[in-house]
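Let's practice the habit of predicting before peeking. Look at the sequence and jot down your guess about where helices and strands might fall. Then scroll down.
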Amino acid sequence: MHAWPASEVPALPGKGRDLQIHDTATQGTITLAPGPVARIYVCGITPYDATHIGHAATYNAFDLVQRVWLDTKRQVIYVQNVTDVDDPLLERALRDNQDWTELAERETALFREDMTALRMLPPQHYIGAVEAIPGIVPLVERLRDAGAAYELDGDVYFSVESDPNFGKVSHLDAEAMRLLSAERGGDPDRAGKKNPLDPMLWMAARPGEPSWDGGSLGRGRPGWHIECVAIALDHLGMTFDIQGGGSDLAFPHHEMGASHAQVLTGEFPMAKAYVHAGMVALHGEKMSKSKGNLVFVSALRRAGVDPAAIRLALLSHHYRADWEWTDEVLAEAVARLERWRAAVSRPDGIPADDLVEEVREALSNDLDAPAALAAVDRWVDLQIATDGDDESAPGLVSRTVDALLGVAL
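Done guessing? Here is the structure:
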């Protein structure tokens, strides 16, 4: 599966700073100082609907991570999956009387268009669940043969008790885990499971649903968590730098995936940092497909909203914060974009070397994008109010905003 085109990232003078970021697993801020190559895995979409602002906010956070690392002169290996076969996708296709593969392909294509418009840097490896199945099956067989998985009516489940480190990502108690498991795709009430929290690794073929050859597992399709594990281990190996996604993925998805990988490899942890973006609300409720309270990036673009303004609206909130999308949020972003473009359109201006360092410092401090925007705002206000004579300043500001914030002025 192919990703989307990469926008050019301008080179800035000097060198960026190592990233300090909040790690869900340690419940504190850690400093990530990878070697020459930084490795990140971000969980992708289930393509049964278009990209909404909540998606965009999450991918914007991890786009900032890449930009911070690139500014430190590191190479970045970024991997993202597409869950192009799963119950929600099949249910939507059945509801709308569509072929599930055509639905997945159409919505994935629209996602690519949205990411391109928002100048999100693409992953080097963009892998669909279906194409990953040949690599998933052997992992499930290994877990089963090691006694870490068991069969139930043809389905194969992972035993969470096989991992002594289970629970160290989310730090939730058993009851909270059980409630979230039921809410987020698990089946804790299924009879016959060794532990209600045990997640499915391989679902035996169901009538009328797609299935693939699973070797000794029989025909079926993979569970959600093992999909990401197989892709991550294949392209990044263990103990990569960041496992990322929305805060709703901490449990069960990232918790279960970590346990799968740790039992498979005997290594701990799967990732050095588990980084989670906050949720975006609309009209007082979390933006979600199940509730239908969505603001789509593509709809905003069709309405004539500049993608740079959408990106500035996302950047105006700290990535870990839960926040609400409103017309006012977008209006403020549109106005900010106009001010910034007016300021850098002048032939000369006030010096901007300090601004570059202010933006670097803000982003290295747990991706504090609002502080970075405030720094640019201060320069813009002075630029508009003052007659400067530095001919290089407007261009340097434009390159800084582009390279570090992904906003083209």
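How did you do? The chain has a mean pLDDT of 96.
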